[in-house]
Amino acid sequence: MREINKVVLAFSGGLDTSVILKWLQDTYRCEVVTFTADIGQGEEVEPARAKARQLGVNEIYIDNLREEFVRDFVFPMFRANTIYEGEYLLGTSIARPLIAKRQIEIAKETGADAVSHGATGKGNDQVRFELGYYALEPNIHVIAPWREWDLNSREKLLAYAEKHGIPVEMKKKNGSPYSMDANLLHISYEGRSLENPATEPEELMWRWTVSPEKAPDEAEFLEIEFERGDAVALNGCRSSSADILATLNQLGGKHGIGRLDLVENRYVGMKSRGCYETPGGAILLRAHRALESITLDREVSHLKDELMPRYATLIYNGYWWSPERKAIQALIDVTQENVNGWVRLKLYKGNVMVVGRDSKTDSLFDENVATFEDDAGAYNQADAAGFIRLNALRLRIAANKRRKV
Questions:
Q1: pLDDT of 80-92, one tens digit each?
Q2: Is 113 among the catalytic positions?
Q3: Which terminus of the chain is more solvent-facing, meaning fewer CB atoms within 10 Å of its CB: N or C?
């Protein structure tokens, strides 16, 4: 075992990292610096400070990264309309590169020679964290307790926590709490009954959204304004990126929007079932695509759609800091120069419906050309005959060849 003097632990204050903190102290006999990123988990932040102090930590970092998280990570991802495997809005995935970045900065500030995280050896987060660490500090030493210790179940973790007097949220007599991750983009749930993909999630599990059945019977209308692909105002009021997403979460949660029950393909090779609530993200994605529909050239739009699955996979697998992700991002950002305007949405019982969109300066929609009424010569319908015959040429040649056989 390598001698470690000081380690920076990504510390949420939950079951896993609370146990890890104590385990690092006992196993490596080293000083532990805790780092908690406030990226929208709310009340979890201060209990993390209290737990760290209770376990003898002297250097405690709790950084408000909410605005940086949304502005520099979530919004760039949403410019690409990013969805993994057709459903997942990557709420956990997109938070990891920011946490890794700040963790490495703290290691340099405090003179730590190692960093540690609470990701399991079966999951994606170990890859995301460590790819970030090595991309930003190639010689850093990484401690991944789940790959070293024998506390390989939730029950063993709970027993360890009880032995060492570590408080655990949602501790239940008949089993372990859900494994949860929350930030301004989403909250996720894994474990317990969710490990059986045939079992419906219990209603009490959901924290951010009401069920669509219990959502208001009256629809609510919302207007989002965009500049260069990023949301900048709600209902005419400009606000910060973080505040916009927080408000959209509240509105979406109120109307039962953004629930997801997904079996996904992890990077390490297994399938995993998780449930997610992403109310604000679901609204934002629908609005952004609506505005792009009138501001993007057809081929540019289709190119974005072709690149998106690759981009989504890079983020899901932890390659945010890779040169290929940066290259795709540069292309995506160029496409967003003219994505300026507003979108009006209707929120109703789990649904987000686009009911209007406009761009005064950058719309490519021409009513004179698209109209079903008299277009006053703006479009010569007779031109379509030659267009169709030219595009049918290869089909006609092939058909004639078959007839001669």
A1: 999 999 999 999 9
A2: no
A3: C
